[in-house]
Amino acid sequence: MANLRVGLIGLGMMGRHHARVIREVEGVDLVAVADAYGDPHGVAKDLPVLRNVEELIAAGIDMAVAAVPTGMHEEVGLALAEAGVHTLVEKPIAASTEAGKRLLAAFTAKGLVGAVGHIERFNPALQSLRKRIADGELGEVYQIATRRQGPFPSRIADVGVVKDLGTHDIDLTAWLAQSHYESIFAQTTTRSGRPHEDMVSATGKLDNGIITNHLVNWLSPMKERLTVVTGEKGAFVADTVTADLTFYENGTVATEWDSIGAFRGVSEGNVTRLAIAKPEPLRTEHEAFRDAVLGLRSDVVTMAEGLETLVVAEAVLESARTGQSVRITV
Length: 330
Hints:
Elements (H helix, E strand, L loop, with lengths): L3 E6 L3 H12 L3 E7 L14 E2 L2 H6 L4 E4 L6 H10 L3 E5 L6 H14 L3 E4 L6 H11 L6 E9 L11 H17 L3 E9 L9 E8 L4 E7 L6 E8 L2 E6 L4 E7 L7 H4 L6 E7 L6 H14 L8 H20 L3 E2 L3
Parallel strand pairs: 1-2, 1-4, 2-3, 4-5, 5-6, 7-10
Antiparallel strand pairs: 7-11, 8-9, 8-15, 9-10, 11-12, 12-13, 13-14
């Protein structure tokens, strides 16, 4: 069977990583790249740099990766859908829920694989964590809290921190919990002089009763990517920068310290740093996309899921604007 022919549009910071990984994945060939602004990172190599999505489609591709700015996702995605090209579009799915709905409808009507690049789902620490939660290792889950902060990335120009970074946490939380968001309350601030928010604090509740908390910003000098899941038997902490997963077990040893012994909550138990395999998340994501196109499995982040994440992100912004909790309806 011939390899699948892949086209890549958008050769910026994410585009260069996509190009590298596509070339590493078995069963696919990178045959065309496009970017109206050229190839600043030299990822095209021996391929000509095409100017637009129409030229990319004309190269005869089976599947595509769209790593263009968020405001271009709809235009590029609709063109690829019309041409019958399976597409992985970087997150968020689109600049607005209305645009996301049009993309979802277009790919569904054509029976194509439409995926969204929520790469955190493919982080080995989170993949292991999801399986452990599903297997009952934590018992009942009470809370999922995330912290995602660091310096401002110059690559972002057309959306704020909620739709860029915050959508990672919205998606991974719903995925870990296997539940939809019921409501969200948030506050944002803008401190960098840009037109979009650069810091958000949000708390929410999922349909299954789990409470959530998300701290996201572009204003911190330290980079932090943590997911803490607290439940009946203890807490898991996933660091997606290092792909480390640690389990903090509830204590079972009786204390002899009277003032602490009187506390009727949990106590500290064993702490275990779990040994897990650590494949590169972007490669795992591309392998899932390839296999979905081949009909072998279906664990990509679908456009329907990407749209639901964007609905929650826009509810976060609405809550921050109105000062009210917002119920989520999809």
